[in-house]
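Input/output pair, single chain:
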Amino acid sequence: MDLLLWGVLPYLSVALLIAGTVWRARYDKFGWTTRSTQLHESRLLRIGSPLFHFGMLFVVLGHVVGLLIPMSWTDAVGLSDHAYHLLAVSTGAVAGLAAAAGIGILVYRRFKVPAVRRATLKSDHLMYAFLLGAMVLGLTATILNSTGQTDGYNYREGVSVWFRSLFALSPDHHLMAAAPLAFRLHVLFGFTLFALIPYSRLVHMFSAPLKYLFRPYVVYRRRDPKQLANRAPERGWERVS
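Output:
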């Protein structure tokens, strides 16, 4: 079971992520959208959306640093393990709470506003469940670890090493199996969420409006009343109703 969970499931999740994204890009281009409901309600959206998106941005960056950068690298630049954990916990807690508050507002809005509720898909319920679950479990693991409830477990010597071993195609599943329960559940919810991305509205995270940076300018000219007065009258087919 440990081999299946920590040696096979991560690759299966990535395979579903890649295959689903390619399929959506080729056969469901018009469905590749956030399915925005801003026209139905904007007040709660203006609060919850920035909290969630900016919070998640810093959460992802924190996971990248914590999982991909070995302890030897931070030790080499003079950053002690205590200072690293203090920085990670303080910034991660703020980002995690912001993201959790944002998704909480968005979920409340989705069920509170009738028009938004009617626009909710079945895949949204599943996506929100795993997204909220991953956030709550991540915050729980951080709190338990920082308060000494995990017997001094150092995820940089366990979870991080296991995660980096996945890239070498030689997963050390024993390291992940020895992690505290909160960490294991958080990772399971995270990889399940990865697999769901192409099959939900989360697929829009792979979109970037790069064309807007290179599109030509739209030139607006103010109408001169004198030119309008001297212009010949429009013919019937030229008139705009």
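The chain has a mean pLDDT of 85. The longest helix spans residues 81-112.
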